[in-house]
Amino acid sequence: MLVKIKFQKIKKAIIAAAGYGTRFLPATKNQPKEMLPIIDKPIIHHLVEECVASGITDIIIVTRSGQGIMEDYFDSHLELEYMLDVNGKEALLKTVREIPQLANFVYVRQKKNLPYGNGTPLLVAAPLIDDDEAFVYMFGDDLTISKAPVTKQLIDVYYQEKPSAILAVQKVPDSEVERYATVEYKSDGKYKYEIKALLEKMPLGKNPSNMAQFGRFVFSYDVIKEVKKTPTGKDNELWVADVLNNLAKKGKKVIAQPIIGEWLTTGDPLRYMKTQVRFALQREDLGHDFAEFLKNLKL
């Protein structure tokens, strides 16, 4: 008789928010980039909402020194609530009071002795992940627009395929290839999106495809075990791509899943402004008027 293995539901997410945001100085001198607004919500608030909409209840935010503003944001603000209450601003009061209730929040500092890199937050949060559970991993500067949350899309594939890791990918134009890690797919994989390799920031012509990794992942504990053994790579940084390549070379199933929706990055001022525009156009209360404003601009 076949024994059906029961997989624990994915309830935890790690959000990497320990960078310095140097491309946004001086705006990020005293606040993390993840707290820059997309209209009226910080970038990280949008990430949290995507997690919650995907069934996540526990959110681990990896920060650095000087980022207490994020902890304050996801906490109650009694003075503000009192002011809104006495002034009869019930809708705003409801909005503010809901923020701390979005999820259970845990904050972990990224210590200076650890290497720099997009894989380092996994080392920081590793003690909070059980050895029998999978979890979501998110970069703190990537946003998405989609009907079904992108994180939920990845979780559904994880439950179906039971891989060691899933990374979200989307096709990028030739002009963007060198900015990202791009995927080489297996020709003989049991699942059509299994990867052979993930190559970080390859110049056009040396890229294996135009399918680029962005900051949404579902990882099993295999990734935690592997990141602890992975040395620093290009530019002496600890890369998620190196961790996933190591797993793929060992015969573990690693999936690069194309997502249904739109990936938007806020990694530099130009792309941040483009993301602002896309989100504004999506808003029912702003979209029509904003679109009319854009149409009437004399460029």
UniProtKB/TrEMBL annotation:
Keyword Nucleotidyltransferase appears in the UniProt entry: yes
EC numbers on record: 2.7.7.9
GO molecular function terms noted in the UniProt entry: UTP:glucose-1-phosphate uridylyltransferase activity
Keyword match Transmembrane helix: no
Record field: catalytic activity: alpha-D-glucose 1-phosphate + UTP + H(+) = UDP-alpha-D-glucose + diphosphate
Domain Nucleotidyl transferase: 12-275
InterPro entries according to UniProt: GalU_uridylyltTrfase_bac/arc, NTP_transferase_dom, Nucleotide-diphossugar_trans
Record GO biological process: UDP-alpha-D-glucose metabolic process
SUPFAM superfamilies recorded: Nucleotide-diphospho-sugar transferases
Short name of any one Pfam family annotated for the protein: NTP_transferase
Record keywords, A-Z: Nucleotidyltransferase, Transferase
Domain of life: Bacteria
Family matches, as PANTHER family: UTP--GLUCOSE-1-PHOSPHATE URIDYLYLTRANSFERASE
Family stated for the protein in its record: Belongs to the UDPGP type 2 family.
Protein name in the entry: UTP--glucose-1-phosphate uridylyltransferase
Native organism: Candidatus Woesebacteria bacterium GW2011_GWA1_39_8
